Amino acid sequence: xxxxxxxxxxxxxxxxxxxxxxxxxxxxxxxxxxxxxxxxxxxxxxxxxxxxxxxxxxxxxxxxxxxxxxxxxxxxxxxxxxxxxxxxxxxxxxxxxxxxxxxxxxxxxxxxxxxxxxxxxxxxxxxxxxxxxxxxxxxxxxxxxxxxxxxxxxxxxxxxxxxxxxxxxxxxxxxxxxxxxxxxxxxxxxxxx
Length: 193
Prior knowledge:
transmembrane helix, 4 helices, DUF7524, membrane, transmembrane
């Protein structure tokens, strides 16, 4: 979204100009001339310091209709260090003016990070890696003594359900056998967590 420098015109009295004291940007911006009263001619001009890095993309003498807003695009060049200058907005053939100190800043580099050679080395470990014997690793993966009876009971339940479903050959009994098999499968998964 384009940054906006808002300038209020004719808010208090005819040819009145209200603008912020300062404005900073690193990209092209827009001067919004918001007229609150009678139609007015507005002159927008950049001083030498600002015009070196910014260009007003409109005729310097602008006509702003009654109760309307007119946008004046301002292009900016890329800079290596901040450049500050003055943007002058004048109405009433120069009888009323307002000056805005505009700073054009260097563009954000997207959050670049400097990388040095220390990032190319793997991190040093504070502790030595311990080797675990194979028998201990296998015993951790096998079920405990309390789990074996539950597994056997589950296998018997699935076997009985399959035998009954095979003997009766009813769709309702087949669904019941599926429910028993699913319940046993869930119980096994819970046991091994």
